[in-house]
Amino acid sequence: MSKNQLSRRRLLTSSLSFAGAAVLSNRSGRASGFVSANDRPRVGAIGTGSRWCQRATGVDGPWGSAPDFRKYGDYVSVCDADATRRELAAGLAKEWTGSAPGVHADYRAILDDPNIDIVHISTPDHWHAKIAIEAMLAGKDVYCEKPMTVTISEGQQICDVCTRTGRIVQIGTQQRSEEQFIRAIALIRAGRLGKLKKATCSIGGAPESPQIPVAAPPSSLDWNLWQGPVSEKEFRYLAGNNGETKSWSRCHYEFRWWYEYSGGKLTDWGAHHVDIATWGLGKTETGPLTINAIMVRHPVEFKNGYPVDPSRYNTATQFLIRTTFDDGVEIEIRHDGDNGILFEGTEGRIFVNRGKLTGAPVEELKSNPLPNGAMEEVYKNRPLVDHFRNFFEAARDRKEPISDVFSHHRALSTCHLAGIAARLNRKITWDPRNEAIVGDEQAQGLIAREYRKGFEIANG
């Protein structure tokens, strides 16, 4: 039995015993439901940028998970390394709940608060694992925006801690709760595509930047705290008509395009589409054997897997990476094509993204519908609901949510391996059982990273 299977089995057992008895009794009934005002879980928000709520960046807009998340729980505390954002978030939380929340720069104040049930993590990617692990150890359930980690090693640690603590953790891969993706998986499981051969994930390319000069951080931003566990770098900023921040920088939103803080498109959209591909192919308990960087273009020069120019975005802008499993099934990750996932089998093919589900097997549903309950079975035998409600119901019932840490770790490991192959520009071999790169010490060295002194993971 694989480490993932053992972890999931232990999680489900411990969730019902340790968490179900000890933790729920400590919550004084607040976790028993979320409709009544007295039953609503208390939530602490760590990271309050645009992924949390666009309004917390000072700009009105439709983006962010908090406006929907708050349907099921109350934000009683907010935290951000940027004073401007945390004050805006505090105003929103007060507007939503009628009470002023706790306001913090240091996330540990939220973890130390015994009255907080759930931690909602919307920080930049390089903070996700550390906060999630420490939140679980503090007895909190966790909703973490994707991607869960920036290294494979972090995913291994999260799976271990989730197993040991029995906490409920949902990852923000919301496509798992969207009807067209669930229907696509149900079609595959019903055999409508025949024997599966391949999934192609078109995730889009990443941007380049001009040379970004060193600059003084804004007075509202604690740059040292924002960097946290990664190696210290100079703040860089260049104003211009670029993206939601109208700038190029090493910071807000633009952190996605630096390997120091993220994995570029390979973990940004890859966390969504490779997750669906892995789920659909039935590979959530394993991983590929080979990862082949057929074509990769970076905007700067690399040496030994690391960028040599600190002044420009450095994640891959174009790529074609082919991963192959032990049965010959492939997941291909590419920058071009219609954004979405193409599944191919011996009897047909389907394409799915956030706007459509197409292909002959889909058209044939008119005359040959799926069996009753097929989609609910895909959804772990639970009623189909939105992604946030699924999490709150899972926390209430002490059940595994639809986007659990174990399957996400496996899918995201494929993204991380693709990133390692891209950085080294060569094919690598992976041992999915032992979760190690075979015969390539340099590549193996990239599955983990050293944490900056004073910001190590408190893994008790």
Compact overview of the structure:
With 460 residues, the protein is α/β, with parallel strands linked by helices.
Shape: globular
N-end to C-end Cα span: 26 Å
Number of helices: 15
Task: Classify the fold: give the CATH topology of the largest domain.
Answer: Dihydrodipicolinate Reductase, domain 2
Q: How many strands?
A: 19
Q: Pairing-aware structural class of the strands and helices?
A: alpha/beta
**CATH level-four homologous superfamily name of the largest domain:** Dihydrodipicolinate Reductase, domain 2
Indicate the radius of gyration in whole angstroms.
Answer: 21 Å
Task: Based on the model shown, name its key terms.
TAT_signal; 15 helices; 32% helix; Rossmann fold; nucleotide binding; 19 strands; six-stranded parallel β-sheet; NAD(P)-bd_dom_sf; Dihydrodipicolinate Reductase, domain 2; 2 domains; EC 1.1.99.28
Description:
This protein folds into 2 domains: 3-175, NAD(P)-binding Rossmann-like Domain (Rossmann fold, 3-Layer(aba) Sandwich); 178-380 and 405-460, Dihydrodipicolinate Reductase, domain 2 (2-Layer Sandwich), CATH 3.30.360. Helix content is 32%, strand content 18%. The chain has 15 helices and 19 strands. Strands 17-16-15-7-14-13-10-18-19 form a 9-stranded mixed beta sheet. The longest helix has 24 residues, at 3-26. It is globular, with a radius of gyration of 21 Å. Residues 1-6 and 8-32 have low confidence and may be disordered.
Write the layout of secondary structure elements.
Blueprint: H1 3-26, E1 42-46, H2 66-69, E2 74-79, H3 83-97, E3 102-104, H4 108-111, E4 118-121, H5 128-137, E5 141-144, H6 152-165, E6 169-171, H7 179-189, E7 196-202, H8 223-227, E8 237-239, E9 247-249, H9 265-268, H10 270-281, E10 290-297, E11 302-303, E12 306-307, E13 318-324, E14 330-334, E15 340-345, E16 348-352, E17 357-358, H11 360-363, H12 374-378, H13 387-397, H14 405-424, E18 428-431, E19 436-438, H15 441-444
Parallel strand pairs: 1-2, 1-4, 2-3, 4-5, 5-6, 7-14
Antiparallel strand pairs: 7-15, 8-9, 10-13, 10-18, 11-12, 13-14, 15-16, 16-17, 18-19
Helix pairs in contact: 1-6, 5-6, 6-14, 7-10, 10-14
